[in-house]
Design brief:
The protein has 169 residues and is of the alpha+beta class. 27% of the residues lie in helices and 17% in strands. Helix 1 crosses helix 2.
Length: 169
């Protein structure tokens, strides 16, 4: 198991070296239940808590780069006005990427390299019969059970009735 605190210190030092004004009070913890997200940043009072998925700490997988990307991504959320992935957060992410060669983005795709082993594929899919837009879900929600009650977000036409939602194989 990779040492989260060791990598957190490295990433904090890199952000500090670039003079990016991050929060000073940040805690780091491992989330053993997270399956579809790699990290999370929460503000609790005047302190930030960053959770990292335990799957990124697995030494048997080549995920050191993804771990550092995720840590810096979450550290940037501790900067003033950076809880969303726009504006200042994006500027800081671009700055880190250019200076240090990271690949910090808004989201990590499950089809990117070693992450395909970590992030599971969605079990359910609804396809718009009009424009072909694909909607994937991990749980059999109302949207999956009754897609006919919803409209496509892309073409705005009604989604198909029954049997359009199918489990992935």
């Amino acid at each position: 198991m990779r040492d989260l605190n060791h990598y957190a210190k490295i990433c904090l030092a890199e952000v500090d070296r670039l003079k990016i004004p991050r929060a000073k009070s940040i805690g780091f913890s491992v989330n053993t239940r997270a399956k579809t997200r790699l990290g999370l940043c929460r503000k609790q009072g005047d302190r930030y808590e960053i959770e990292i998925a335990s799957s990124l700490l697995d030494e048997s997988k080549p995920l050191e780069g993804e771990l550092k990307n995720t840590l810096i991504h979450e550290i940037l959320h501790t900067c003033r006005g950076c809880m969303k992935h726009t504006g200042r957060w994006k500027q800081y992410a671009d700055r880190v990427n250019a200076a240090l060669g990271y690949n910090i983005k808004r989201t990590a795709g499950r089809d990117e390299g070693a992450l395909s082993e970590v992030i599971p594929k969605p079990r359910y899919r609804v396809v718009c019969p009009h424009c072909g837009a694909v909607y994937e879900r991990y749980k059999a929600s109302e949207f999956i059970k009754h897609p006919e009650r919803y409209r496509c977000g892309k073409c705005k036409k009604p989604l198909a009735a029954m049997n359009q939602a199918s489990p992935q194989s």
